Amino acid sequence: MDARKRIALVAHDEMKPKMMAWATTHKAELEKHELIGTGTTGGLLASEVGLEVTCLKSGPLGGDLELGNLIVNDGLDMLIFFWDPMTAQPHDVDVKALLRISAVHNIPIACNQASADFFVTSRWFSAPYETAQPDYTAHINRAVQADT
Ligand SMILES: O=C(CO)COP(=O)(O)O
Fold first, then answer.
1. Domain ranges within the chain, ordered by starting residue
2. Cβ atoms 82, 12 nearer than 8 A
3. ipTM of this complex
4. What residue's CA is closest to ligand 1, atom 4?
5. Cα–Cα distances in angstroms (integers) from residue 119 to residues 39, 79, 81, 89, 139, in the given order
6. Is 13 a catalytic residue?
7. Does the keyword Lyase apply (predicted)?
8. How confident is residue 66, by pLDDT bands cut at 50, 70 and 90?
9. Does domain 6-125 have CATH number 3.40.50.1380?
């Protein structure tokens, strides 16, 4: 990854106040990067915090899956996702898909304020970082039977 990262910012509704407060604290650091948000989170980061954010669809309307698509196609470096551990989400499968595909592609994920604090204070946050690419050759070349 380059020094200037492509960072997704996402928060479930109950976590949005925490995300806005966190982004306000770290606004100067975040401004150095390309920011992408799910619709509502991104809109609030722009209007409440004053950050420039590319807004995708709202999470439950496909925004989480759009982020997954970016990850699969090498369009995202980092995910900061304050997901809500106490509230059921109608799009729980999309949330799981986003978290899973981040793990598949070795994308750094911060899922709460403490881990996000570690991210912004990491020496790699504003420096190039060589991401280890998982090797899925064995999966791609695995033997599968085409007929029964
Ligand atoms: O639901 C979300 C993530 O799963 C976030 O979506 P919004 O930012 O549109 O509220």
1. 6-125
2. yes
3. 0.99
4. 59
5. 23, 10, 12, 26, 31
6. no
7. yes
8. very high
9. yes
